[in-house]
Amino acid sequence: MTYKQGVQILLVEDNPHDVELALHALKQIKIANCVEIARDGEEALDYLFHRGAYVSRASEPPPRLVLLDLKLPKVDGLEVLKAMKADPRTRVIPVVVLTASREDRDVLASYELGVNSYIVKPVDFDKFVEAVKQVGFYWLLLNEPVNR
Amino acid sequence: MISRELYQALAETVQVWIMHLKRDATIEIFNRYGRELLGYTEEELIGKNFFEVIRYETPEQVLRQLFIGLLQGVPVVGREGIVRRKDGSPVYVMWSAVPTYDEHGQVSGVAGIAVDITARRQAEVALMESEARYRTLAETAGIAIIHVLPDGTVTYLNRYAEEVSGYTREEILGKDGFRIFFPDFTGEETRVQMAAILSGEQWTNKEVSIQATGGTRKWIHFSASRTLTADGVPSGAVISGICITERKRMEDALRANETLLRQFVENSPAAVAMFDNDMRYLLVSKRWMTDYRLGDRNIVGLSHYEVFPEIPERWKKIHQRCLAGAVERAEEDPFVRTDGTLDWLKWEVRPWLNDEGDIGGIIMFTEVITERKKQQEQLRAAEEKYRSIFENAAVGIFQSVPEGQYLSINPKFAHIFGFSSPEEMMNAVSDITTLYVHPQQRKEIARQVSESEGFHQYENHYYRKDRSVMTADLYIRAVKDNAGNVLYLEGFLEDITDRKLAEEALRESEARLNALIENLPFDVWATDVEGRYVKANSVCRKHWGDIIGKLPEDVVQSPATIAAWRESNRKVLSGEVLQEEIEYTVDGDNRTMVNIVAPIWDREMIRGTVGVNIDITERNRAEKALKYRLDFESLVSTLSTNFINLSPEQVDSGIDNALGEIGRFVGIDRSYIFIVSDDMSVMTNTHEWCSEGTKAYMDEMQDLRADDFPWFTKHLRAREVIYVPEVDKLPPEAGKELKYWQGQQIRSLINVPMISRDRLVGFVGFDSVEATRIWNEDELTLLKLVSDMLVNALERKWTDEELRESKESYQLLVENQTDLIVKVDTEGRFLFISPSYCEVFGKTEEELLGKSFKPLVHEEDIPATDEAMKDLFRPPYKCYIEQRDLTKDGWRWYAWVDTSVLDEHSNVIAIIGVGRDITDRKHAEEEIRKLNEELEHRVRQRTEQLEVANKELEAFTYSVSHDLRAPLRHVDGFSRILEESLGENLPEDAARYLDVIRYSTQQMGRLIDDLLSLSRVGRRVLEEHEVDMGALVDDVLYSLKDEMEGRDIKIVRQPLPAAVGDPGLLRQVWINLLSNAIKFTRTREKASIEIGATAGKVCPVYFVKDNGVGFDMKYAGKLFGVFQRLHRVEQFEGTGVGLAIVQRIVRRHNGEIWVEAVPDKGATFFFTICGGRE
C-alpha cells in the first residue's frame, strides 16, 4: 500500500460525505494534500502505531494534527483518543475532536482523556469551513510542535 | 695504761652514753651515742656546764650531792632516772658514775655512763598496769572468785571468797576447793562436776547454802567455767559465786582494797668491757666485775678466754666476727654459768677503731637481765591468770567509761546480750544507754556510782541484740584516781530474766487465785488445824463478819451448831471431804444451801480445812421454771403440729381440744376464744373449754356489744394483753367489767389479743375461778405463742372458706368465657382446660388433661411458638403468640397471651394461657398484605419500564444529536459547494432554490438543537446553589445587548430575592423570557420591559412584563407546548421550544409558571422557584 508523504493531518472520519466536506474546507487553507484519512478507529490506531497495513511507516514522522470523529465503526473515537494519550509516542500529537455530538458526557470524556480542542460540526457549511480553517491555522501554522 | 686516744675512740664507738665532766661540771667528753640520744651537737655540749645544759627529772639538789660525793670518791652505780632530750621528750636511763683521778691521785673529774632503758621501762609499766587492773578487779569484786586446778586444788581465791567461805586464804590455798565450798558434794560428784566444767560445760545457777563464820547460813549462787592455757589446754576452772542473801553486805565486801604492788626490783646495771684484737681486757667496768662475779681480780691485760675458760664456741665466733667488723647484739640470751646457773643476758658486741681507722678490738656491753626476765614472766603469768578469769567468768564483766562506751567486756557479758563475741558487741554498742529499756537509768546509775564508793547493785531491764527484753542484776562501781576523778566504771552483770519471770508468774498466779476466791459469789473460808479461821472471802466476811483468827464458838452461839461444826472439822481433819445440802428459812423464804468442806493437804500433811457454802435456792427454782417452760413449749409445739394435720373442717374441734390441753396444763378453770367484728363493735365467744365443775358461758356470750365494756375494749384496741391478777382489785374505771366478771365468779383472768395480718381478729382468754392466779413473764410469752397458734388455725379455716367461695366464683367466670383459658405445666401438658376450650376443640376435659397442647398447633407455627414461649421462663415471664390451632371447625388463628405462674423462688411452675380467635382479623390482614404486595409489584414494573424508556430516550436523543444532523450538514455543505462551483453560471431561480434548501436545513438544525436542549433540561442532574437573581438578570440583559441594538427599550429591573436552584438552568429561564420580551416588543416604537418580584404564598413570584404584541388568553394553554407558536414565522422567528424549556426548568425547581396577556397590549410571565428537587 502506498501512502502520502509528509502527512500533516490525520483525519479520522467514517462518513465519506463528511470526509469530502472536510477536505473541501482544508483545501481552502492549502493543506488538503497533506491529509491522510482513516475510515475507522482501528485504521487510525494502525496508522499511528505502524501496525497492519501501516507497518512500514515506522520511519515516517507522525502527523502534526489528528482530526477525530467520535462516532466510528469498530473502535470509537474516545478509545482512539485514550490509546493515543496513553502512549508516549502519540501523546504529544494534538488531537481535535470534530463531531456532531454536543452531548455533555462526550465533551467531558474527551477533555478528561486530554483532547486539545473539541469542535461541534455545525449544520451551516460556511461555519464548518470557518471552524476547520481556524483549527488548521492554529495547530499547523501557529502552534509550535514538540521537537523530536 | 690505756692512752687517752684509746679512751676517746672507745667512747665514740660504744652504744652507751659516756661522758666526762671536770670538777667544775664542765663537759669534757660527751660521746656520739650520748649526743645522738639527747639530740645535741658537740659544740652545744663540750666546755658547757652539765647542770646548765642537760635537763633531767631528778631534783638538781640530789644530783649535785651525788656529784659532790663523786668528787670525794664515792661512785654512783645503777641509778635510774629520766633525762630530757633537747626537744623535751623523756629518756629513761640507767646510769653509773665514777670519779676520775689525775696522776697525783687527786679527783680530776667524773666519768659517767648511761644506757637507754625507755622501751623496756614502758613495756614493764604497761604490763604492771594491766596486771594491777585485773587483780584489783578480781580482788575487789563483790563476787567470790576461786580458781582451781583440774584436781580441785585452789590456786587463787579472792577476798570475797574468803569471806564467803569463812576461811582465810592461807587455809584454803592448795586445798580441795569443792570440799570447802560444796561440803554436800560427795567425792564422786565433785569429779563429775569438775569433768563437766573442764569439758567446756557452762556450770551455772548452782545455789549452795554455806555455813559461814558466825553461824549464819549464806546462799551463794555459783557458776563455773573452765580456764584454758594459751595452748588451749584446760588448766582449771574459775568458780564465781554471788551471795544472794546479803546483797547489801556485798557492797562492804566489795570495798576497794588497794593492794600495793611489788616495786620494780632493782635492775641490774650495765656492764662494759673493752678488748684488743687478741681479746685481752683493755677496760672493764666495776659492774662487769660484779656481774661476772670476778671479785676484786685485776683482769685488765688478761685474755677473756683465760678469765672465762667455759666460754662456748658460739661466743668465740661472735668475738671473731666483730673483730672483723661486724656488730652483733641480742636482747635476751641465755648464759649457763660454770656453776650451772642460768643467766639471761642482753648484750652487744661491736668493734672499735683506733686513730688510724683500723679495728683495734671489740667492746662488749652486757646486761644481766635474769631478774627482770623472771619478773616479766611472773607478771605475764599473773596477767594471764586474771585475763583467763575475766575471759571465762560465768558472769558478765565489763569496764566502761561514764559517758557510755565499753572499754572491755568479757565473752559472757556479750553472750548475755545475745552477741557472739565481745568484739561484736563492742563494735555494735557505741552508746550503752541504748541497751537500757529505760535509758535514763544508765545516766542515773553512772551518776550514783560516780558520787560514791564501792559497788552498787541494780536490777534493770535491758534489750538484747534481738531487742528482746531481759532483766539483769548489775553490780557496778566507779574506779577513781587519787584525786577522786572517775577513770572508768566496772562491774558485773547477771541475767536474771528467767528467775524474774518465774517469780513474776508465781506472784501473778497467786494474785489471780486470790482475786478469784475473793470475788466468788459464795462463802469461802479456810481454817488451820485448830479450826481457827485463817481466810475468808468477801461474801464470807459479809455473812459472818471478820472471822479471821476466830474459832467457831466465837462466831456462832448455838452449842449444837458449835458441836456440829467441830464434828465436821474433826472429820475433815482426818481426811474426809464433806458435802451436804442444808435447808433453812430466811424471812419466810425456804432456801437450800450446799456446804462442802475439804482438808488442805501440804506435803502429805493436813494443814487445815477449806470450805464453801453455796446457796442453790435460785438454781433449783430456775430449773423448775425451765422445766415448766419447756413442757409448755413442748405442748404448744405438739398442738401446732396437730393443727397442721387437721383438715379445715376439723379446725374447730382442734381448737376446742387445744383450749382444754392448755387449760389443764396451766391449771386454770376456763379457756375461750372471742372473735371481734371488723369494726370491733361486736364480740362473740366461738370456742370454750371449762374444767370440771366450772360453769360454761359461751351460749350467753354471743354478739356482745363492745361499748358495754369500755375499759376492756380500750385495752383490746391497743392490742394489749389484758391481765387481771385479782378481779376484785380492778380500778374504778373498769367498773362495768368488774361487775360482769364477778357475776361469773372469776377471780383472775388473762386475755391475749389475736392478731392476724396486722388485724385484730379476737382474743384468747384464761379464767381462774377457784383461786387467784399469778402469771409470770415467761408464761405470758407462751400465751402469746398460743394466741398466734390459734389465730393461724382460724386463719386457715377462714382462708379455706374464702378460697372455696372464690373458687366457685372463679369457676363461674371461666365457664362463661368465650376466650379460651388453659393452664399447662412447664412441658406444655394441660393442667386445666376451660369449658370454652373443650367446646372449640371438640374435646372433653379428660381427653386433654395431662396431654401436650402442641399436637393442636399448626406445624408451621410451632417454631415461632417455641421461640415466643422462651419469654415465659425469664422476665417478663409473659408472651404473646399468634398461631393456627386445629379446632373442630378446622384450622383457626388464635392469639394467645401466656403468663407464667411462679413460686417464691421465681421458678416457673405452670403457665396460664388465654386464647382468642383472630381468624377474621388474620384474613383481613392477609388480604391487605396481598394487595400491598401486588401494588408494590406493579410499581416496580412501572419503574423498570420507565427506566427502560428513559434509556431509550437517551439513546434516541444521542442519535438525533449525532446522526440526524449529518445529512443536514451534507445537504447544506454540498448546496454551498454547488453554489460556489457554479458561481456566476447559476441561474437566478436555481440560486434562490439553493437558498431555500440551505435555510431549511439550517432551520432543521436549529429545531434539532432546541429539542436536544429541551431533552437535556429534563435529563440534567440539578445543581443547587443560592442564586442572586438580580445579578443573574443583569448579566443576561448584558448578553442580550446585541439583540437590543438600535431599539428603544425601557428596561426596569426591580430588586429580586435570591433563589435556590441550578444557576445554569435559571439563566436559561431568564434568557428565554427576556429574549422573548425583546422579540415580541419589536413592533413597538417605545418598548418597555419590567422585571420584578412579588411575595407569593410559598415563595417569591418573579415576573417579566412587556408591552409587546401579547396574545389572546384563550391560547394560553398551548403556549408552553413544544413547537407551539402563536405567531407566524415571517412575523416572529423561532422554533416554539423556548417556553417549553422554561416551563420544564421551572417545574424541575418545584415552581410554577403562568402568563397573563392581552392581544396587542403585552404579556406578563410569572414564575416561582421554590428550591429543592422536583
Principal-axis shape of chain B = flat
Backbone CA Rg of chain B: 73 Å
Tally of strands of chain B = 44
- Largest β sheet strand count, sense and barrel closure of chain A: 5 strands, parallel
The largest inter-chain interface, given as chain pair and residues per side, is:
A-B, 20 and 23 residues
**Poorly predicted runs of chain A:** none
The helix/strand series of chain A, from N terminus to C terminus, equals: EHEHEHHEHEH
Number of helices of chain A: 6
- Low-confidence region ranges of chain B: 246-269
Distance linking N and C termini of chain B:
164 Å
Question: Short summary of the structure?
Answer:
The complex is a heterodimer of chains A (148) and B (1174). With 148 residues, chain A is an alpha/beta fold.
Task: Characterise this structure.
The complex is a heterodimer of chains A (148) and B (1174). Chain A has helices at 16-27, 41-48, 77-86, 88-91, 104-113, 125-142; strands at residues 9-12, 35-38, 65-68, 95-99, 117-120. With 148 residues, chain A is an alpha/beta fold. In chain A, helix 1 (16-27) links the parallel strand 1 and strand 2 (35-38). Chain B is 40% helix and 28% strand. Chain B is built from 35 helices and 44 strands. A six-stranded antiparallel beta sheet of chain B has the order 2-1-6-5-4-3, sandwiched between helices. In chain B, strands 29-28-27-32-31-30 form a six-stranded antiparallel beta sheet. Chain A binds chain B through residues 15, 17-18, 21, 24, 70-71, 99-104, 121-126, 128, and chain B through 958, 961-963, 965-966, 968-970, 972-977, 998, 1001-1002, 1004-1005, 1009, 1012, 1016.
Observed structural traits:
heterodimer; A: 148 residues; alpha/beta; five-stranded parallel β-sheet; 6 helices; globular; B: 1174 residues; alpha+beta; six-stranded antiparallel β-sheet
